[in-house]
Amino acid sequence: MALNIRALIFDMDGVLADTPPLHYESWKRLAQDEGINFGWEQHEQMQGLVRRHSLDVFLGGKLITESQAQEMMARKNTYFTESLQKLTPADRFPGTAEIMQEAHEAGIKVGLGSSSQNAREVIKKLGLAPYFDVVADGYTVRQNKPAPDIFLWVADQLKVTPSEAIVFEDSVAGMQAAIAGGFWRVGLGGKHGDGAHVALNSLAEVNLAGLLQRLNEVAAHQNGTSH
After folding, report:
1. Is 194 a catalytic residue?
2. Residue 14 within a domain
3. What is the pLDDT of residue 225?
4. Is residue 141 part of a domain?
5. Do the Cβ atoms of 215 and 203 come closer than 8 Å?
6. Annotated catalytic residue: which of 13, 137, 149, 170?
7. Do 77 and 183 belong together in one domain?
């Protein structure tokens, strides 16, 4: 029996556009301010995490007061929002707008489930905001990735069950959240760890019909109906 996919739910950073380098440069500026050794390896560990948890990675065990933490996060965010001014629709990854447009034409809803507190501003800059029926960001749920709460919240708002939705993720924490929530999963970029039903380098590799066909083949195999 064919899958009944009624929603697509996207992560943002690293899925819709190559925004992680903007975050990296912002953290790097903060590191220079604070005399902290910070490199891309630490930044990789931040992928999919909310800002407070990212700060813990950034600090590497260094103890600070909560007021210092809040100030540092605010300063990092100031640096990031400055870099956002350069973001345009030309920066979005190939295939993103196209697959969302195909979804709407097929009557499939589109949601965003991002840990970023800047998610709404980013999708606006990318020219993608009109495609989303529901947006969840770093302010939406208390337990963020790798907990499934943000994806479950989006699914609830879209009035679909996890088995009727596909999550698109590029991070390990995000993939773990999608697994915990029981969603169909598309991994992008090769750094999402295990658990993707379909792995792609880019959304430009598939159209919606081709992706649904591949997921149906996975489902048939899981059900033992393919030989």
Report:
1. no
2. yes
3. 53
4. yes
5. no
6. 13
7. no
- The CATH number of residue 57's host domain is 1.10.150.240
pLDDT at 83 over 50: yes
Indicate whether 95 pLDDT > 70.
yes
pLDDT digits (tens, 9 = 90+) for 14-41: 999 998 889 999 999 999 999 999 999 9
Considering the domain boundaries, does residue 1 fall inside one? no
Shared domain check, 99 and 199? yes
Query: Residue 25 is part of which domain span?
Result: 20-84
Residue 186, domain member (yes or no): yes
DSSP-derived letter for residue 48 is T
Please report which residue ranges of 35-109 form alpha helices under DSSP H: 40-46, 51-59, 66-84, 96-105
Walk across the sheet containing 134-136 and list its strands: 134-136, 109-113, 7-10, 165-169, 184-188, 198-200
Q: How many domains does the chain have?
A: 2
- The C-alpha R_g of the chain, in whole angstroms, comes to 18
User: For residues 133 and 113, is the Cβ–Cβ distance under 8 A?
Assistant: no
Model pTM score? 0.87
Whether 227 shows a pLDDT value over 70: the answer reads: no
Work out the widest C-alpha separation in the chain, in whole angstroms: 60
Tokens linked to 192 = 């999402």
The whole-angstrom separation of Cα 124 and Cα 47 is 21
Q: What mean pLDDT, rounded, does the chain reach?
A: 94
Question: Is 149 an active-site residue?
Answer: no
- pLDDT attached to residue 6: 98
Residue of 11, 137, 149, 170 marked active site: 11
